Amino acid sequence: MDKVRLLKDRLSSRPVICAVRSEEALRRVLSFEEPRCVFVLGSTLQDLFKTVSSLTARGHMPFVHVDLVEGLKADQSGIRYMVDNARPFGVISTHKGVIDAAKAMGLVTVLRVFLLDSDAVRKGKSLVSSLKPDFLEVLPGVAVMGVEKGRLLELGGSLIAGGLVETREQVRAILDKGVLGVSTSRVDLW
């Protein structure tokens, strides 16, 4: 089974994505018996390898937000170094070059786009069309609740939402819009 299909299957049973920003959150994820999709949102280069290795060893699917790794340059050489040493399941980025390089290296890609206004939606749609990321994460996730489902699906690609999601009711409302997964750092929602 290809990696994208594997992730979609995981999200169908566990649609809440663990967004990890601290050692405490990482320990919580590592305590779960059932594997999850995990977004590593911030790390240092020296900690990244241990973090990704620990997550992978427990069966989790770690995605590294490349733009937020201290000490890692978000260019082709930096991505290659990360892939060779950390071996994440995928990457998250707002940058075209990162998405292109990661795709070429066989990683699952998540392009982050901010839904600020109609122009941002138009630009997001254009980016998805040209980059063809595996997934599109729209932020803030709570904005999804106010957007018509058809308009959201016009963005193209497989949708994830994240940011400012604080309740189970918000998670359900976002998923009802056709979104495959909701990323949150709220441990109580994992």
Automatic annotation (TrEMBL):
It holds the Pfam family G3P_antiterm. InterPro entries: Aldolase_TIM, GlpP. GO terms for biological process: glycerol metabolic process; regulation of DNA-templated transcription. This is Glycerol-3-phosphate responsive antiterminator, GlpP.
